[in-house]
Description:
alpha/beta, about 25% helix
Amino acid sequence: MNNARVLGLAGWSGAGKTTLLMKLIPLLTQRGLNVATIKHAHHAFDVDQPGKDSYEHRRAGASEVIVSSARRWAQMHEIGDGSEATLAELLSKVSPCDIILVEGFKREQHPKLEVFRAAVGKPALHPQDPRIVAVASDSPLPGCPVPVVDLDDIPAIADIVQARAVALAAALKC
């Protein structure tokens, strides 16, 4: 049984979601938490390399390939013309951990921390998304209906993650 809790990081491209995660994950692990992540990509991507056996297995038509070593394992699943996996489907595949941080999936219904930079030139998400529980921003947001924390205050952001993440079972129902 996975007793993980889930919180997303949502924002427009260029807002700094990945940069924030790279600072946030080490702090959460220092606090004793086992952290997993799910990252949404809007483009084709490959975690494998041409010429490697696993790549050749997929190229030959395998719909799923698992590569394993003494240090890690990876599972690649080809969907072809099928539908993109839903966030709930992906969440259900995560091994037991304490926190699952979801990067992207900004239109999904799970609770999210918005990463906002006015310089990106896009509107804030929180006015239209009631699932945003807080905003991490590089500038003040007067009148914001949820807590706003400085984008560089990683301990405060970690506190929000720990306080506002929801149980995996609740996230699967969103």
